Each structure stands twice: as C-alpha cells, then as structure tokens.
C-alpha cells in the first residue's frame, strides 16, 4: 500500500515556543521522503515522530533564515552516523550556498558522500524525484526564497463497463494498461483510450515565508494538499507585508482561488498562543470552504485520495 503522508515536525516561526518547535515537515510519498525546512530541533522531533534518517531522500530548503535551516547540521550528521546508503538530494537557493556550506560542515563528524547538492537559481526550477516532479518557484521575502510543489504524473483510470463491453477481462486488462492496446477475444483491437479516462496526478504544495506574489498561484493550483505559512492574523497585515509573510486570511484566499483540496496552516508567530488558534481557522475559512488543518507538532496528515 502506498503511503502519502505529511509528518509535521515543527510549526513555529522565528522563535520556538513551549508547544511549537521550529519548522520541519517530512512528506512521505511512496518511498520518497521530502524533508522541508528542517529548523533547530528537527532531529529530536523525528525521533519523537518515530522517523529515521533512512526515511529522507530529499532535503528542501525554501531559504536560509535560521528557523528554516538550523536543523541541517543534525540531520546531515544523523544521515552519516546511521550510514544511510541512498542519495539524499539537497536543494536550496544558490544565493545562500555560503550558508549551506557552513551548515553542512558545522561540526566535526564522520562525513557521508550521499548528499547531492542542487542549488536553485532563476524564477523556476524543475527536478526529478523518481516518477515525481519537484518544482521550485521564486517567492517574495527579504532574502531569496522558493516554494515547492511535488507533482505525480497524470495517469489513466480504467472504466469497467467499457472493458466488459469489449470483452477485455483478466490478464488482458493488465496488458492493456502496460502496452496501450490489446486484441480482444472477438479479434478486434481495443485501445487504452477507449476503456479509460485521464486520472489527475496527486500534488502537494509547500509555501513558506512570502508575501503575496505571482509565484504562489502556479505552485498552489489544484493542489491536493497545500501547506502554507500563516504567520500573522489580519490585524498585523501591515507587519506581514513588511516582513514578507502571509496572514491566515490571505492563506485562505490563496487556497480558495487555487482550488486546493485540503489546506494546512502553519509557521505561527510566537506572539500568538493556543487561545488564538480559532481566529486563524476563522480567518482562513472566511474565503476557503474546504477542510482546514491548523498544524501542530507531530501531526500526521494524509494527502487526500485522488480526485475523480
């Protein structure tokens, strides 16, 4: 059975709180493990979540502010200590490469050669992760920052009534899926297009520190799961704009306009406490009518089933 699940390791912004660790999000997707923005304490949060360094195949940094990257040294050293055998690809803004080097070699340890670096430059970058596409797009923050989208390729959904009408049964169905055409028992040729319809690939978008900008929409468009910062509430909208962040109201509007299927709010300023959480949900829900999760540390959130 495939596993497509987001494990939330931390949900605070610049300053951790008693209830919220610095950022950290591990997207488990059919054997790939995308670790987004490992902030300070990520290694310990992974232990608490029952995760292993072996689960990580990608380290994806949106930008080089501390709450999004100070966990890199511990994570890399754990990958080395646990002798992870597979390649772990690290993506980060090319403009922050100096900081990446400092984090990558922050202490004395027995190093590993499995880390493959892929610095990001330009407005858009596309990378391959097996059959998945990882797209990075430039956002708007005081330092160079990227958002990410994980996209599964489009597939086909078989239509049983059409298969039956053409006499395609049993092993012939598998051959039709693999080869695109088969000869039916009556001698006619049956094509895959005749007995199936397009099935959209699943997608997840990860949008951290940014004010509203043109890079957001293509990342979020039609995403099954949108994980997005909502650092502030609307009374602090001017502050959000000044520091390159979003409010919960803006996050809800972005999700609604993009046709997102499940919205996850995170990256909360330390100025707010548990009593403010209903306000974040209410602001987002004013525009977005779909399911909303206000993320907490160690939450596990399934990617919604494929849209029909």
From TrEMBL:
Cofactor: binding comment: Binds 2 Zn(2+) ions.
Pfam families assigned: Lactamase_B, Lactamase_B_2
Molecular-function GO terms, alphabetical: 3'-tRNA processing endoribonuclease activity; zinc ion binding
Cofactor(s) the protein needs: Zn(2+)
UniProt: Zn(2+) 1 binding residues: 63, 65, 141, 209
Residues at the active site: 67
UniProt xrefs under InterPro entries: Metallo-B-lactamas, RibonucZ/Hydroxyglut_hydro, RNase_Z/BN
Source domain of life: Bacteria
Chain residues that bind Zn(2+) 2: 67-68, 209, 267
Keywords: Endonuclease, Hydrolase, Metal-binding, Nuclease, tRNA processing, Zinc
EC number: 3.1.26.11
Quaternary organization: Homodimer.
Protein family membership: Belongs to the RNase Z family.
Descriptive protein name: Ribonuclease Z
Originating species: Thermocatellispora tengchongensis
Name of the coding gene: rnz
């Amino acid at each position: 059975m495939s596993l497509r699940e987001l494990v939330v390791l931390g949900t605070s912004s610049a300053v951790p709180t008693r209830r919220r660790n610095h950022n950290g999000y591990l997207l488990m997707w059919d054997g790939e493990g995308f670790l987004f923005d490992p902030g300070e304490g990520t290694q310990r949060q992974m232990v608490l979540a029952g995760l292993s360094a072996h689960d990580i195949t990608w380290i994806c940094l949106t930008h080089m502010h501390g709450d999004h990257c100070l966990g890199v040294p511990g994570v890399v050293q754990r990958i080395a200590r646990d002798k992870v055998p597979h390649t772990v690809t690290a993506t980060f803004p090319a403009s922050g490469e100096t900081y990446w080097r400092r984090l990558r070699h922050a202490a004395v340890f027995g190093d590993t050669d499995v880390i493959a670096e892929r610095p990001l430059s330009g407005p858009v970058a596309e990378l391959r992760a097996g059959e998945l596409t990882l797209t990075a797009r430039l956002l708007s923050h005081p330092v160079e920052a990227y958002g990410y989208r994980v996209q599964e390729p489009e597939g086909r959904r078989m239509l049983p009534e059409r298969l039956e009408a053409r006499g395609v049964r049993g092993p012939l169905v598998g051959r039709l899926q693999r080869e695109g055409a088969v000869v039916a028992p009556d001698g006619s040729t049956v094509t895959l297009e005749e007995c199936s319809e397009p099935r959209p690939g699943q997608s997840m978008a990860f949008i951290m520190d940014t004010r509203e900008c043109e890079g957001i929409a293509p990342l979020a468009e039609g995403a099954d799961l949108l994980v997005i910062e909502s650092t502030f509430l609307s009374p602090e909208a001017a502050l959000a704009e000044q520091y390159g962040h979003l409010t919960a109201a803006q996050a809800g509007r972005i999700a609604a306009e993009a046709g997102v299927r499940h919205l996850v709010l995170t990256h909360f300023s330390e100025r707010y406490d548990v009593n403010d959480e209903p306000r974040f949900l209410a602001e987002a829900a004013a525009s977005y009518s779909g399911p909303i999760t206000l993320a907490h540390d160690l939450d596990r959130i399934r990617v919604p089933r494929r849209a029909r």
